Amino acid sequence: MTIPNDEIGSVLLDMQDAGMDLTQPVVVEFFQLFESKTNAQALADFLQTQQEVISVTLHPDQTPEVWDVDCTVEMVPSYENIKAKEAYFEKLARQYDGYNDGWGVHFEES
């Protein structure tokens, strides 16, 4: 598998180097940020209606007056899948006056 040399590719290579099988589904968490708690709550409420979503968490960010909406989905972490899902969450966040702030996975070696 060829992984492009960009931010997504760098994270995927780190995951692969840590022993993660990038062909198997994992839980991926996507982060959205908002300056309005009302807008963050509106996106969180919408995301909770989506079948693909495992969990949604709304909480204050470390930055004052900023709110995080963290959303987890189970997916194969291919470059194309991550790029498409980030674009999806960026589009959704913009509809609620927020923006996508990246993604991550929790990986524990066995």
UniProtKB/TrEMBL annotation:
Regulator of ribonuclease activity B domain boundaries: 6-105
Gene3D superfamilies assigned: RraB-like
Entries under SUPFAM superfamilies matching the protein: Hypothetical protein VC0424 (SSF89946)
UniProt-listed InterPro entries: RraB-like_sf, RraB_dom
Name used for this protein in its record: Ribonuclease E inhibitor RraB
Species the sequence originates in: Thalassotalea mangrovi
Lineage: Bacteria, Pseudomonadati, Pseudomonadota, Gammaproteobacteria, Alteromonadales
